[in-house]
Amino acid sequence: MPIQPISLEILLQKFRNGEIAEDLALLEILQESDKCFKIFSNNGLNVLLGSEGSGKTKFLTYLISKLTEDCWNPNHNLFGKKIHWLDVERPMSQYVKSIAKLVENVSLEIEYVLETIRFYSVLDLNPQQIRALIETDLLKSDCKPGIVVIDHILPIVSDMNSSPESTEIDLFLKKLIHHGHI
């Protein structure tokens, strides 16, 4: 029997009637500013969702500061790991503020922070160059598995409507996870 197209009108009506539930977030974090950020997980890939201008980058900076401390705590499962932070959208004048804020939030000496975090500004690279950088730096044999934070995924994609490229990105991210990165 051939597959029939989905009626979007019926689908929307079912959603509005509560017949189709939203995906449940793995984690919901309420910040002091009363902003709620939802993190969804799928096969080891964790995604933070939020609208543009909602404060996701500020939240990420706060989260990375806490993860940095965990990387130095011998009783934590992140002990000894590195954090690889890719900022794909912002110019230096903006991301340097995030780094300064991160250093302020951490209860560690700056030397420990600098040893833990590897920051990449890839604003001037095209999607293929960004993926090549990640492959050569994070998937080499002497790179210990760590935490990979990609602040905004769209610049890594040339055509978000391309099925082959979506599959390529999915496989690429799964390769990072398979290599042991979180």
Please describe the structure with a list of short key phrases separated by commas or semicolons:
alpha/beta; single chain; three-stranded parallel sheet; 6 strands; three-stranded antiparallel sheet; 182 residues; 6 helices
Descriptive report:
By secondary structure, this protein is of the alpha/beta class. Helix content is 40%, strand content 17%. It has 6 helices and 6 strands, in the order αβββαβααβαβα. It has a 3-stranded antiparallel sheet. A hairpin with a 2-residue loop joins strand 2 and strand 3 (45-49). The N and C termini lie far apart (41 Å). The mean pLDDT is 78.
Topology (SSEs and partners):
Elements: H1 8-16, E1 27-30, E2 36-42, E3 45-49, H2 56-70, E4 83-87, H3 92-105, H4 110-116, E5 117-121, H5 127-138, E6 147-151, H6 163-178
Parallel strand pairs: 4-5, 4-6
Antiparallel strand pairs: 1-2, 2-3
Rounded to an integer in angstroms, the radius of gyration calculated over CA atoms is 19 Å
Range of helix content: 40-55%
Give the integer mean of the pLDDT values: 78
Spatial strand order of the main sheet: 1-2-3
Q: What is the 3D shape?
A: globular
| Number of distinct beta strands | 6
Could you state the order of secondary-structure elements as H and E?
Answer: HEEEHEHHEHEH
Low-confidence stretches: none
Strand content: 15-25%
Class based on secondary structure composition and strand pairing: alpha/beta
Provide a count of the helices: 6
Tell me about the biggest sheet? 3 strands, antiparallel
The termini sit apart by: 41 Å
